[in-house]
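step 3/5: co-fold with zinc ion
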Amino acid sequence: MPLIDNLLTLYKVDRQVRSLQSRVESAQLYLKVQTKLMTAIAVELSENELRLKQHKSNIAVAETETGSIDARVERLREDLNKAVNDKEYKALLAEVNTLKDQRKSFEDEMLIEMASVETLDTTLVEITAKIDERKKITKVAEKELDVRQDEIAEQLAELEKERATAASVIPADILEDFDEIADDYEGESMASIEIIDKKRKEYSCNSCSLHLPLESIVQLMANDDTIVKCGQCDRILFLGQASKEALAPSE
Ligand SMILES: [Zn+2]
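step 4/5: write C-alpha coordinates
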Protein backbone atom coordinates (compact mmCIF):
# COMPACT_ATOMS: atom_id res chain seq x y z
CA MET A 1 0.00 0.00 0.00
CA PRO A 2 1.21 3.52 -0.71
CA LEU A 3 2.63 5.43 2.24
CA ILE A 4 -0.27 7.88 2.30
CA ASP A 5 -2.77 5.03 2.61
CA ASN A 6 -0.74 3.43 5.38
CA LEU A 7 -0.71 6.77 7.15
CA LEU A 8 -4.48 7.04 6.79
CA THR A 9 -4.87 3.59 8.33
CA LEU A 10 -2.67 4.64 11.23
CA TYR A 11 -4.53 7.95 11.49
CA LYS A 12 -7.88 6.18 11.83
CA VAL A 13 -6.80 3.71 14.48
CA ASP A 14 -4.78 6.36 16.32
CA ARG A 15 -7.90 8.50 16.59
CA GLN A 16 -9.86 5.52 17.89
CA VAL A 17 -7.24 4.91 20.57
CA ARG A 18 -7.34 8.57 21.55
CA SER A 19 -11.12 8.79 21.62
CA LEU A 20 -11.27 5.67 23.77
CA GLN A 21 -8.77 7.14 26.18
CA SER A 22 -10.67 10.40 26.22
CA ARG A 23 -13.79 8.56 27.34
CA VAL A 24 -11.96 7.55 30.50
CA GLU A 25 -10.44 11.01 30.80
CA SER A 26 -13.85 12.66 30.74
CA ALA A 27 -15.11 10.25 33.40
CA GLN A 28 -12.04 11.01 35.50
CA LEU A 29 -12.60 14.72 35.04
CA TYR A 30 -16.26 14.37 35.95
CA LEU A 31 -15.37 12.52 39.15
CA LYS A 32 -12.81 15.19 39.98
CA VAL A 33 -15.47 17.88 39.58
CA GLN A 34 -17.73 15.96 41.97
CA THR A 35 -14.97 15.73 44.57
CA LYS A 36 -14.36 19.45 44.23
CA LEU A 37 -18.06 20.24 44.64
CA MET A 38 -18.20 17.98 47.68
CA THR A 39 -15.29 19.85 49.25
CA ALA A 40 -17.09 23.14 48.65
CA ILE A 41 -20.24 21.81 50.34
CA ALA A 42 -18.17 20.57 53.28
CA VAL A 43 -16.82 24.11 53.73
CA GLU A 44 -20.36 25.46 53.57
CA LEU A 45 -21.42 22.93 56.20
CA SER A 46 -18.64 23.77 58.62
CA GLU A 47 -19.27 27.51 58.21
CA ASN A 48 -22.95 26.97 58.91
CA GLU A 49 -22.15 24.87 61.97
CA LEU A 50 -19.79 27.54 63.26
CA ARG A 51 -22.46 30.22 62.90
CA LEU A 52 -25.05 28.01 64.59
CA LYS A 53 -22.71 27.42 67.49
CA GLN A 54 -22.10 31.17 67.83
CA HIS A 55 -25.81 32.07 67.86
CA LYS A 56 -26.64 29.25 70.26
CA SER A 57 -23.93 30.43 72.60
CA ASN A 58 -25.33 33.99 72.37
CA ILE A 59 -28.71 32.59 73.41
CA ALA A 60 -27.13 30.75 76.33
CA VAL A 61 -25.45 33.97 77.47
CA ALA A 62 -28.73 35.89 77.27
CA GLU A 63 -30.48 33.11 79.19
CA THR A 64 -27.90 33.28 81.97
CA GLU A 65 -28.29 37.06 82.07
CA THR A 66 -32.09 36.96 82.31
CA GLY A 67 -31.79 34.25 84.96
CA SER A 68 -29.56 36.40 87.13
CA ILE A 69 -31.83 39.42 86.54
CA ASP A 70 -34.80 37.32 87.71
CA ALA A 71 -32.94 36.32 90.85
CA ARG A 72 -32.03 39.94 91.58
CA VAL A 73 -35.59 41.12 90.94
CA GLU A 74 -36.87 38.49 93.35
CA ARG A 75 -34.50 39.66 96.08
CA LEU A 76 -35.47 43.27 95.41
CA ARG A 77 -39.15 42.39 95.75
CA GLU A 78 -38.44 40.89 99.15
CA ASP A 79 -36.62 44.09 100.09
CA LEU A 80 -39.58 46.10 98.78
CA ASN A 81 -41.84 44.35 101.23
CA LYS A 82 -39.46 45.19 104.02
CA ALA A 83 -38.94 48.83 102.96
CA VAL A 84 -39.09 51.12 105.96
CA ASN A 85 -39.90 54.35 104.18
CA ASP A 86 -41.20 55.75 100.93
CA LYS A 87 -37.79 56.89 99.75
CA GLU A 88 -36.28 53.42 100.12
CA TYR A 89 -39.35 51.90 98.49
CA LYS A 90 -39.11 54.20 95.49
CA ALA A 91 -35.40 53.56 95.07
CA LEU A 92 -35.91 49.80 95.13
CA LEU A 93 -38.81 50.07 92.68
CA ALA A 94 -36.71 52.15 90.32
CA GLU A 95 -34.01 49.44 90.38
CA VAL A 96 -36.60 46.76 89.66
CA ASN A 97 -37.84 48.74 86.66
CA THR A 98 -34.32 49.24 85.34
CA LEU A 99 -33.72 45.49 85.62
CA LYS A 100 -37.00 44.80 83.84
CA ASP A 101 -35.86 47.02 80.94
CA GLN A 102 -32.56 45.17 80.81
CA ARG A 103 -34.41 41.87 80.81
CA LYS A 104 -36.55 43.08 77.94
CA SER A 105 -33.53 43.92 75.82
CA PHE A 106 -32.02 40.48 76.53
CA GLU A 107 -35.33 38.92 75.51
CA ASP A 108 -35.36 40.92 72.29
CA GLU A 109 -31.80 39.84 71.58
CA MET A 110 -32.75 36.21 72.23
CA LEU A 111 -35.62 36.46 69.74
CA ILE A 112 -33.28 37.76 67.06
CA GLU A 113 -30.75 35.03 67.87
CA MET A 114 -33.45 32.36 67.76
CA ALA A 115 -34.60 33.57 64.36
CA SER A 116 -31.00 33.28 63.15
CA VAL A 117 -30.76 29.75 64.55
CA GLU A 118 -33.96 28.85 62.78
CA THR A 119 -32.63 30.16 59.46
CA LEU A 120 -29.34 28.32 59.95
CA ASP A 121 -31.17 25.13 60.84
CA THR A 122 -33.09 25.37 57.58
CA THR A 123 -29.81 25.94 55.74
CA LEU A 124 -28.38 22.90 57.52
CA VAL A 125 -31.21 20.75 56.21
CA GLU A 126 -30.57 22.07 52.72
CA ILE A 127 -26.83 21.45 52.96
CA THR A 128 -27.42 17.93 54.26
CA ALA A 129 -29.72 17.24 51.31
CA LYS A 130 -27.07 18.62 48.95
CA ILE A 131 -24.45 16.33 50.50
CA ASP A 132 -26.70 13.29 50.10
CA GLU A 133 -27.40 14.21 46.50
CA ARG A 134 -23.73 14.82 45.73
CA LYS A 135 -22.75 11.53 47.39
CA LYS A 136 -25.13 9.71 45.11
CA ILE A 137 -23.77 11.47 42.03
CA THR A 138 -20.19 10.78 43.14
CA LYS A 139 -20.98 7.10 43.62
CA VAL A 140 -22.43 6.91 40.12
CA ALA A 141 -19.39 8.77 38.76
CA GLU A 142 -17.02 6.34 40.47
CA LYS A 143 -18.91 3.40 39.11
CA GLU A 144 -18.99 4.95 35.65
CA LEU A 145 -15.23 5.40 35.73
CA ASP A 146 -14.74 1.79 36.82
CA VAL A 147 -17.01 0.56 34.04
CA ARG A 148 -15.28 2.69 31.44
CA GLN A 149 -11.87 1.63 32.58
CA ASP A 150 -12.87 -2.01 32.44
CA GLU A 151 -14.60 -1.47 29.14
CA ILE A 152 -11.72 0.25 27.44
CA ALA A 153 -9.09 -2.06 28.91
CA GLU A 154 -10.07 -4.75 26.46
CA GLN A 155 -10.84 -2.49 23.51
CA LEU A 156 -7.76 -0.42 24.16
CA ALA A 157 -5.47 -3.44 24.17
CA GLU A 158 -7.01 -4.51 20.89
CA LEU A 159 -6.75 -1.10 19.28
CA GLU A 160 -3.21 -0.59 20.51
CA LYS A 161 -2.26 -3.83 18.83
CA GLU A 162 -3.90 -2.58 15.64
CA ARG A 163 -2.15 0.71 15.99
CA ALA A 164 1.22 -0.99 16.43
CA THR A 165 0.59 -3.00 13.28
CA ALA A 166 -0.36 0.12 11.35
CA ALA A 167 2.66 1.97 12.69
CA SER A 168 5.08 -0.85 11.86
CA VAL A 169 4.88 -0.15 8.11
CA ILE A 170 5.61 3.59 8.48
CA PRO A 171 9.25 4.73 8.23
CA ALA A 172 10.54 5.75 11.68
CA ASP A 173 11.14 9.44 10.94
CA ILE A 174 7.71 9.88 9.38
CA LEU A 175 6.11 8.05 12.30
CA GLU A 176 7.83 10.33 14.77
CA ASP A 177 6.56 13.35 12.88
CA PHE A 178 3.06 11.88 12.70
CA ASP A 179 2.98 11.23 16.46
CA GLU A 180 4.14 14.74 17.19
CA ILE A 181 1.42 16.31 15.03
CA ALA A 182 -1.18 13.93 16.49
CA ASP A 183 -0.22 14.95 20.02
CA ASP A 184 -0.46 18.62 19.09
CA TYR A 185 -3.91 18.26 17.56
CA GLU A 186 -5.48 15.58 19.75
CA GLY A 187 -5.22 13.00 17.03
CA GLU A 188 -6.09 15.28 14.12
CA SER A 189 -2.76 14.70 12.43
CA MET A 190 -4.02 14.58 8.86
CA ALA A 191 -6.13 16.91 6.77
CA SER A 192 -7.93 16.33 3.53
CA ILE A 193 -7.57 18.65 0.59
CA GLU A 194 -10.67 20.54 -0.38
CA ILE A 195 -11.25 21.44 -4.00
CA ILE A 196 -12.59 24.97 -3.98
CA ASP A 197 -12.56 25.46 -7.73
CA LYS A 198 -11.13 22.82 -10.01
CA LYS A 199 -10.97 25.02 -13.09
CA ARG A 200 -9.24 27.85 -11.30
CA LYS A 201 -7.08 25.30 -9.50
CA GLU A 202 -7.99 26.48 -6.05
CA TYR A 203 -7.47 24.13 -3.19
CA SER A 204 -7.44 24.46 0.56
CA CYS A 205 -6.54 22.57 3.72
CA ASN A 206 -9.74 21.18 5.18
CA SER A 207 -8.51 21.71 8.72
CA CYS A 208 -7.21 25.25 8.74
CA SER A 209 -8.62 26.52 5.41
CA LEU A 210 -5.26 27.66 4.14
CA HIS A 211 -5.19 27.97 0.35
CA LEU A 212 -2.77 25.38 -0.89
CA PRO A 213 -0.32 25.90 -3.74
CA LEU A 214 -1.12 23.84 -6.83
CA GLU A 215 2.28 22.26 -6.45
CA SER A 216 1.13 20.42 -3.30
CA ILE A 217 -1.75 18.82 -5.17
CA VAL A 218 0.36 17.93 -8.18
CA GLN A 219 2.92 16.34 -5.91
CA LEU A 220 0.30 14.25 -4.11
CA MET A 221 -1.37 13.18 -7.34
CA ALA A 222 1.93 12.14 -8.83
CA ASN A 223 3.31 10.18 -5.93
CA ASP A 224 1.43 8.41 -3.15
CA ASP A 225 4.64 7.86 -1.25
CA THR A 226 5.51 11.51 -0.64
CA ILE A 227 4.51 13.46 2.40
CA VAL A 228 2.96 16.84 1.69
CA LYS A 229 2.14 18.99 4.65
CA CYS A 230 -0.04 22.03 5.10
CA GLY A 231 2.10 25.15 5.20
CA GLN A 232 0.08 26.61 8.02
CA CYS A 233 -1.15 23.89 10.39
CA ASP A 234 1.55 21.35 9.50
CA ARG A 235 -0.92 18.49 9.13
CA ILE A 236 -0.18 15.73 6.66
CA LEU A 237 -2.35 16.31 3.59
CA PHE A 238 -4.27 13.68 1.71
CA LEU A 239 -6.77 13.51 -1.10
CA GLY A 240 -10.07 11.88 -0.29
CA GLN A 241 -11.45 9.33 -2.74
CA ALA A 242 -13.98 11.79 -4.19
CA SER A 243 -11.36 14.48 -4.68
CA LYS A 244 -9.00 12.01 -6.31
CA GLU A 245 -11.70 11.00 -8.76
CA ALA A 246 -12.62 14.60 -9.42
CA LEU A 247 -9.03 15.48 -10.14
CA ALA A 248 -8.25 12.41 -12.26
CA PRO A 249 -7.87 13.13 -15.98
CA SER A 250 -11.21 12.31 -17.59
CA GLU A 251 -9.89 10.43 -20.60
ZN1 LIG B 1 -3.86 23.29 7.39
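step 5/5: annotate
The mean pLDDT is 94.
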